[in-house]
Amino acid sequence: MVTRSTIMDTNSFRAEHAAALDHETKALTEKRGEVLGESYRLFYRNPVHLVKGKGQYLWDAKGTKYLDVYNNVASIGHCHPRVIEAVTAQMQCLNTHTRYLHENILSYSENILKTMPSEIDRAMYMCTGSEANDLAIRVAREYTGGTGIIVSQESYHGTSELTSGCSPALGTGQVLANTTRCVSAPDQYRIITEDLGHWFADQIQRQIDDMRANGIQFAGFLADSIFSSDGVMSHPIGFLKQAVDVVHRNGGVFIADEVQPGFGRTGDAFWGFERHGVVPDIITTGKPMGNGIPVSGLFAKHEVLSAFSDQIPYFNTFGGNPVSMAAAQAVLDVIQEEELQQHSEEVGAVLKKELTYLMNKHECIGDVRGAGLFIGFELVSDRNTKKPNKKLALNVIEELRNQHHILTSVAGPHGNVLKLRPPLAFQYSDIDWLVNALDQTLSNVRMFD
């Protein structure tokens, strides 16, 4: 049986697409096949050969300008001058590991902890979000004495052995750990209930009970608070609180994976979990904190972290190195000085409103949801039945790439939700480009429905 991965194979180049490529693109794809591992994937049937980036824009090898509506890793914009300057200056002085003293890691830790609940008072650093979530799972297990981890049905938390075992979004080819349990995503569009928070908390309790029945002690709930891989589940604000209460009543910890919803992206809060009025036990971040420089973090309540750190030395060779910390500080400075959280809220609200207007014209738009510059745009075959239309969604993103030079991708269990998640440099002036392109594209590609 051929297996497909939700996040890796849904929007990807395949061998059968090669015949339609120009000579240069075809040669590059063939060279990748000769020298890189087969697990790698390229976006799009006609892969994009990018050579330059600035802000929310990218350019390909032929000089074509693209609007990036997907890349949250370059969180404050591609090639941001403040990050370039900070990294260059520090690289010219020193770059080494955390077993030597250095001011950068200390000053950044003090500054980033000020943005978090007062209960979160310890920091540790790695190079990737996968490593941060891997350590978070280890800490949760040491603190609780349990092993069981609950995640949402389509979540993605990393590629290490521990995190891939808790990442169902990697697809059927990746076996989940026997200590992992999945809950259905809190999908306000499809789940009919008067209290989504109560419904979701009940799903968590059921999985805890299942663990107990199978001799597994519950350790924690690991969640991206906007459930991005599940299709962007942003509302109602506060629905997550009841689930976190259930986690704590059962002796577990809540790990907030803030790789995607953090750093002001949702607009109404600096951290995604803040929208729900909860205090996590552990917070993890990834490369958006350094605008793409390999840096990530774990932030925790000292009593939770100490259960691990008092017993087990931890050393990540270049996690928290002076260059990465300089990049992270530059990102934080830009977000705060340029008021990018407020920018995200205001520009995102206008974008969401304009996208919602398209529903009056296109019956295939089932739902528009999100917060700030993180929007899910769901396409369906029938609004009444809410039948997902994956084929249409894939044709839309191809048309956006080829005809309108806009880059985005899909999410959700059915691959029918466009995940619109541009760098925070996205401006009001970019809204017309995106919305008009979607309008034209939905009119043109309905023939493929």
UniProtKB/TrEMBL annotation:
Cofactor entry: pyridoxal 5'-phosphate
Listed GO MF terms: transaminase activity
Database matches in CDD domains: OAT_like
UniProt keyword terms in alphabetical order: Aminotransferase, Pyridoxal phosphate, Transferase
Protein family per UniProt: Belongs to the class-III pyridoxal-phosphate-dependent aminotransferase family.
PANTHER family in UniProt: ALANINE--GLYOXYLATE AMINOTRANSFERASE 2-LIKE, PTHR45688
Stated name of the protein: Aspartate aminotransferase family protein
UniProt organism field: Acinetobacter pollinis
